[in-house]
Amino acid sequence: MVNSSHEAMHRIFQEYPGLFTGVSKVLGLPFSAPRAVTVLPTDLTEYRPVERRADTLMRFDSGEDESFLLAVEAQSGKDKDKPASWAYYMSFLYAKYKTPPLLLVVCQDRATAEWAARPMRIGPPQWAALTLQPLVAGPHNMPVITDPAEARADLALAALSAITHAKDPAVDGILKALSTALQDMTEAVVDPIIEFTAQGLSGNRRAAEIWRNLVAVDLSFYKSYIAEEIRDEGRAEALVQKGAEDVLLVLEARGLDVSEVVRERVTSCCDLEVLRRWLTRAVSVEAAEAIFGEVGGAS
Known about the structure:
The protein is an alpha/beta fold. About 50% of the residues lie in helices and about 10% in strands. The chain has twelve helices and seven strands.
């Protein structure tokens, strides 16, 4: 099933094509920075009722006859059928574009990464007619970037570091370094990094909450949807708190006895409409408990 963390793990390469150059250096591979990158259609379906679609597909051109295709796949778990699909992708792409294809699999846990990295040999035991060997980026080989200066030097790689380490305790330091690095950046630079990081962490509640809090505190002046969402939540909570205080204030101003049971029920209510209804009743009821309505009736 496609989810937002799945999307972030491959779409970040579309937004920041240079990210692959940084990843390749981490993996110890001699890929030079491209002069041009083209995002290609991901539909690899033949004229048959079998749909095959890569996650992200790009063409890298160096201008020195070193062009290649990069297919990026986000993989959240082991899937026995996936290697065969990947082998099909590579064969189809080479036949269609006559350009060497490369497969990069991005994972968020070590077990999946190690599974994806295993060479897959297609053919009889005596001789493999085809061997699939993906590049794999995951928590086992992506850097743990906890230095804001290092994060600032390559924001996309820092975001990928956070995404691939989302399930690791180390993600706390990575996210703090990334939020610090973003503080003196322009909004145009900051917003997509915030969004990709948030999407990539969405499968891990703890990491997602840490990032939300950092955005709210360190990057509150940006208008990303996370910051706006947090500010909206804060405004809603303030309105609810004020509504509960108003209900209790009216009851006490009228000299009514407000029991702990009534006080607890009012202060624990999170529905602003219900609080407004109770406030209306508080003006005229003869006992504080009556604001909740008649027995058996609506609250």
